[in-house]
Amino acid sequence: MDTLTQPPDSVYFPPRSRRRTVRRRLDQSFEWLSKVMGLLLLGYLLFDRTFAWFHIPGTPLFVGELALIFGLFTILRTPHLGRIIRMSRPIQLLMLFMLWGFALGFEGYSNWGIDAVRDSALWYYGIFALISSVLLLYKPELWDEMVDGLTRFIPFFFMVMVVRFLFGNVDIGARVPDSRTPYTAHKTANIAVNIAIALAFLLLVIGPALTKDLKRRGTSLTLFGLLLVVAVGTQSRGGFLAAFLILAVVFVLARHARGVMLGVVALAVLVAILAAALDVKFQLDRRELSVEQAIENFQSVAEEATSGSQFDNTTQWRLNLWSLVVDDVFREERMLTGFGFGENLADRYGFTGPSSVPLRNPHNSHLSVLARMGVVGTILWVAMFGAWFLNLSRARRQFIEIGEDRRAALSLWLMLAMIAILVNAFFDPTIEGPQVGVILWTTFGMGAVLGLGARSVGSRRRRLRNQRGHEFDWLLLQERPPESPAHPALSLSADLQEVVTDFDTLLAEPDDESEDTDPED
Fold it and tell me: How far is CA 344 from CA 130, 340, 379, 386, 432, in A?
C-alpha cells in the first residue's frame, strides 16, 4: 500500500464491524426514545394529572422523570446535541435559563431538601426540549409520522375529552397508587387548550390537503371540537381565553380556513339558540353547563362579571397574591435571584386558594419564574421565548418562499400551540406540572428544529451530499423537489442568504458518526 495513504500512528480506527454495532445500538435507542416520547405525550393529553402521578412507589421518580433520564442518556451519545446547541439561539438561551435554575436549586436544596427539587421542575423539564430537538435531528422522518399520527388521533382524542370533561371532577373513590389523585382527575383548562391546539392543527396542517369528501368530515369534526371548547370554557375562563385567542389567529392568518370556520360558527350559534330555547342545563362540580354560563364567561374575559360573586372572589384572591409576591420580589435583596426553589410561596403569604387546595406557587407560571428566579431568570425567560418565536416566524417565511407550505403550516401551528399554553399559564401554574410542562418543552424543541429553517445539518445529509458530487442538498425537512424559483439552486433572497452564510462551515465539521474508510481498504 502506498505510504502516502497510511494514517498517522496516533490515529486509531476502530474495526468497521464495531462501528456498525455502535450505530445499530444507537438507532435502536432512538427508536425506543421516539416510542417513549409518543406514549408519554399521549398519556398527558388523554389522562392529565392521573397519568402524571404514576411513579415508582416510595420514590419521587414519576413517569415523566423516568422518561427524562432515559432521553438524556440517549441524546448524550450523539453529536446532534452539540450541533443543536451551537446552531439554535433559543436552545442556547434555554441552556442559560436551566443553568441559572440549577444554581438556585442547588442552593435551595441545602435549606429545603426535596421540596427544592420538586419546585425545580419549572426549569429542568426544559431538558425535554433538548430531547425532542435531538430526536428530530436524528430521525427527521418523524415529522411526517407525527402529522399522520395526529390526523388519525384527533377524532379519538375529542371523544375521550368528552368523557374526561364530564367526569373530571367526579370522585369515584379509586386513586392512583401511593397518591391522593383520583383516576378521573383532569383540569378543564387543559382540555380547552388541547382541543383548541388540535383544531388549529386540523385547520392549518390537515385542512389544505383534504379532498371534498374528507372536507365534510373535517367540517363536522371542527364543529364538534368548537362546541366542546365552548362547553369546557364554561368551567375555565383561562382555558377559554387561550383557546379563543389562537382560533382567532387561525381565522385571521389562514384564509383557506375562514369559510369553514364561519360555517362552523354559524352552526354553533344555531345549536346554542336551540339549547337556550329548550333551557338545557347541566350542573357540574364547579359551575353549570349552559348557554348563559358560556356567555357570562365570554364577557368576563374582558371585564369583571356582574351576575355573581363567584368570579369576583376567584379574581380577587389571585390579584392579592400576585401583588404581594411582586412587591416582595422587588425588594433590593431579592430582585436579582428571587426566593429560589423550595419555599412554599403561597404559604408565605397565608394563601391556600379559593377551594382550600394547598398551593406552592403564586397561581401564575410566569410570576413563578419572577418569584423563584428573580429578574435574571425573568429576562432569560422572555429572551428565550422571544428568540424562539422570532426564529420560527422567520423560518415560516422561508418555507413559504420555497414552496414548502406544509412546513410553513407546521411552524404557525407550533407558535399557536405555544401561545395557548403560555396564556393559560398566566391564570394557572401549569408549566410546573409535567402534564403541561413536558408538552410545552417538547413543543419548544420541535420549534427550535424548524426554526433552523434552511440550514442543513446531520451526518446522513452530508453523506448524501458527498455521494451526489457535492450537490447543494440544503433543506433539512424538505419532502419533495422545490417548486419556487426562489430555490437557492437558482437564486437566493436576502432572508435566505443570511441562513446559508455558514453552510460551508457546518459541512466542514468533523462527522462523529460517519463510517471512516478502513486504513486497510
Answer: 29, 10, 23, 29, 13
- Locate cell 383532569: which residue? 186
Contacts of range 308-317, beta carbons closer than 8 Å, 24 or more positions apart:
311/237, 313/354, 314/354, 317/351, 317/353, 317/354
Which residue has 371523544 as its cell numbers? Answer: 159
Phi-psi label, residue 510: left if phi above 0, alpha if psi -120 to 50, beta otherwise: beta
- Residue 65: per-residue pLDDT: 95
Residue 335 CA, distance from chain mean position: 29
- At residue 329, the pLDDT reads 87
How does 186-212 read in b/e, with b if 16+ C-beta sit within 10 Å?
bbbbbbbbbbbbbbbbbbbbbbeebee
Q: Which of 153, 182, 232 is nearest to 49 (CA)?
A: 182
pTM of the model: 0.80
The stretches in the chain having pLDDT less than 50 are: 1-3, 11, 302, 304-311, 354-357, 454, 456-521
Chain segment 128-154, per-residue pLDDT in tens: 999 999 999 999 999 999 999 999 999
Instruction: Give the alpha-carbon dihedral of 180, 182, 183, 188, to 10 degrees.
Output: -120
